[in-house]
């Protein structure tokens, strides 16, 4: 099966594209996009990979679902298009960066600038039906993104994994912490962040300190 995805990822993920689950997943997603409004736009389903090639990846942030509101999702977890109001989780991310690194809260919630510096913004599920959170879960995307995490874990070293909330932590439970830096915190959603365990964790400065110590360029968060 031919999948339009950045070449360095295509090379490593090629085996997945020929497995029965991926064929079924592709058929399902095509049908959903024909019948319903779905997000992100079809050409941006693999945007996280296109914006952050495998060879350039140095930080991995794991989200769950794309945003399911109009014009929000564009294929990068937690990120929204320019001009779109910040969802609560993204606002809490920016508040933590402000406290951690003394950086002003940005005008835009578009995180492409992170991706272009080597931050893979990976949702566990890459598509969703409009206004129906979780509607494309358990149809194969999780198997695919598990394979993504697995190839990163095996083939690279000195990655920073940011696992926010129990879902991301469970998805990353097989990451080898002896060769990667695994940071865990509560999810930035107000439902969990406001009760402690998100604010003050300083993941962004910790990530940069780790990268700098190993000769990598720090991320301009």
What does this protein structure show overall?
The N and C termini lie far apart (37 Å). Helix content is 39%, strand content 11%. Strand 5, helix 7 (165-171) and strand 6 (181-185) form a beta-alpha-beta unit. The chain has helices at residues 7-17, 20-35, 47-51, 88-101, 112-115, 141-155, 165-171, 190-193, 203-213; strands at residues 38-39, 59-63, 119-123, 128-129, 160-164, 181-185. The protein contains nine helices and six strands. A four-stranded parallel sheet has the order 3-2-5-6. A two-stranded antiparallel sheet has the order 1-4.
Approximate strand percentage: 5-15%
User: So how many helices?
Assistant: 9
Tell me how many strands there are. 6
Q: What is the mean predicted local confidence, pLDDT?
A: 97
Physical arrangement of strands within the biggest beta sheet: 3-2-5-6
Notable features of this structure?
221 residues; alpha/beta; four-stranded parallel beta sheet; two-stranded antiparallel ribbon; 9 helices; 6 strands; 39% helix
Summary, kept brief:
With 221 residues, this protein is of the alpha/beta class. Helices cover 39% and strands 11% of the residues.
How is the topology of this model organized?
Blueprint: H1 7-17, H2 20-35, E1 38-39, H3 47-51, E2 59-63, H4 88-101, H5 112-115, E3 119-123, E4 128-129, H6 141-155, E5 160-164, H7 165-171, E6 181-185, H8 190-193, H9 203-213
Parallel strand pairs: 2-3, 2-5, 5-6
Antiparallel strand pairs: 1-4
